[in-house]
């Protein structure tokens, strides 16, 4: 795991956007896995800026979103469809036919989940997966106890996450109790992952993810087994890491090595 600690949310967002932009330039037909939540918002804003001011080209990019609430229609203002179009897709030159977001309303959900997995395979697999993390260590909507080799499916949302996500709805009772989500196993097949976390509320989840044992209690901890993961944190999210200074040292050393 490469751990990058930035001073604040703005710097974290910029760093994440730089990495995404660099990967797009290197492979214009890249397949991106995308996440929702407040954390990647700053990164999306920066990517939109890069598109508008620097001509970052999304015309050949394919995207697969991690998850969607079950069962709310894509037109619902709190749906992840709405979020993605509102915050990213409407502002860049992406081909809508290359945008995949799980449907929150399909009838034959098992068949649909298999189809979603199949589409990821047909696209050649995900090159770069963006991830946030829940306070309980979830990635996508893979809540604690999720199988670490799970695939795309409908999952119940944990009470802690319902509480957290209530801020986006009128009240807690409106928060969906289920979501359709890529599985942990699906995420682990991405060729590279970038996990973002900001703020003190994520510090404990980050400690478990980076330094804790690999266990289903913290699904994000499985990323320790992934060969290419970059964790980008702000100071607050990094504050419970036992080896924080060591990670800074390692990052500095590898940057020096690359400079030659
Ligand atoms: C949601 C999403 C996750 C996201 C997480 C954290 O429930 N399903 O993909 O990473 O919560 O959200 P936020 O970035 O708003 O803290």
Description:
This protein has 260 residues and is of the alpha/beta class. It is built from 8 helices and 10 strands. It has helices at residues 9-26, 41-54, 80-87, 109-122, 159-165, 184-188, 203-211, 244-259, and strands at residues 2-6, 31-34, 62-65, 67-70, 99-100, 128-131, 153-156, 178-181, 192-197, 229-234. It has a 7-stranded parallel beta sheet. Strand 2 (31-34), helix 2 and strand 3 (62-65) form a beta-alpha-beta unit. Helix 1 (9-26) packs across helix 2. It is globular, with a radius of gyration of 17 Å. 41% of the residues are buried. Bound molecules: 2-amino-2-deoxy-6-O-phosphono-alpha-D-glucopyranose. 2-amino-2-deoxy-6-O-phosphono-alpha-D-glucopyranose is lined by residues 35-39, 66-67, 132-134, 140-141, 161, 165.
Task: Report a brief summary of the structure.
By secondary structure, the protein is α/β, with parallel strands linked by helices.
Sequence-ordered SSE layout with sheet pairings:
Elements lengths: L1 E5 L2 H18 L4 E4 L6 H14 L7 E4 L1 E4 L9 H8 L11 E2 L8 H14 L5 E4 L21 E4 L2 H7 L12 E4 L2 H5 L3 E6 L5 H9 L17 E6 L9 H16 L1
Parallel strand pairs: 1-10, 2-3, 2-6, 3-5, 6-9, 9-10
Antiparallel strand pairs: 4-8, 7-8
This protein binds 2-amino-2-deoxy-6-O-phosphono-alpha-D-glucopyranose.
2-amino-2-deoxy-6-O-phosphono-alpha-D-glucopyranose binds next to helix 5.
Report the count of strand segments.
Answer: 10
Q: What small molecules does this complex bind?
A: 2-amino-2-deoxy-6-O-phosphono-alpha-D-glucopyranose
How much of the polypeptide forms β-strand, as a percent range? 15-25%
Distance between the termini: 21 Å
Largest sheet: 7 strands, parallel
Name the strands of the widest sheet in spatial order: 1-10-9-6-2-3-5
Total helical segments: 8
Mean pLDDT over the residues: 97
Summing up helix and strand content along with how strands pair, one would put the structural category as: alpha/beta
**What is the CA-based Rg, rounded?**
17 Å
Question: Which outline best applies?
Answer: globular
Low-confidence residue ranges? none
- What is the succession of H and E elements? EHEHEEHEHEEHEHEHEH
The helix content is: 25-40%
């Amino acid at each position: 795991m490469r751990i990058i600690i930035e001073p604040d949310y703005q710097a974290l967002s910029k760093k994440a956007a730089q990495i995404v932009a660099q990967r797009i330039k290197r492979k214009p037909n890249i397949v991106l896995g995308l996440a929702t939540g407040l954390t990647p918002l700053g990164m999306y804003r920066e990517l939109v800026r890069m598109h508008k001011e620097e001509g970052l080209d999304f015309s050949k990019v394919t995207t697969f979103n991690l998850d969607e609430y079950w069962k709310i229609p894509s037109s619902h203002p709190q749906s992840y469809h709405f979020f993605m179009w509102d915050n990213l897709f409407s502002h860049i030159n992406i081909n809508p036919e290359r945008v995949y977001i799980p449907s929150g309303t399909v009838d034959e959900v098992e068949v649909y989940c298999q189809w979603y997995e199949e589409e990821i395979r047909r696209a050649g697999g995900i090159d770069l997966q963006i991830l946030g993390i829940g306070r309980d260590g979830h990635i996508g909507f893979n809540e604690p106890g999720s199988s670490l080799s799970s695939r795309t499916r409908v999952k119940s949302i944990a009470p802690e996450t319902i509480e957290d996500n209530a801020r986006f709805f009128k009240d807690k009772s409106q928060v969906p109790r289920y979501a359709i989500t890529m599985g942990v196993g699906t995420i682990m097949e991405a060729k590279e992952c970038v996990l973002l976390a900001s703020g003190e509320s994520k510090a404990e989840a980050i400690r478990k993810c980076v330094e804790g044992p690999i266990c289903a209690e913290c699904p994000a901890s499985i990323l320790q087994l992934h060969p290419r993961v970059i964790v980008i944190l702000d100071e607050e999210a990094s504050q419970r890491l036992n080896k924080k200074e060591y990670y800074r040292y390692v990052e500095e050393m590898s940057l020096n090595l690359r400079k030659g």
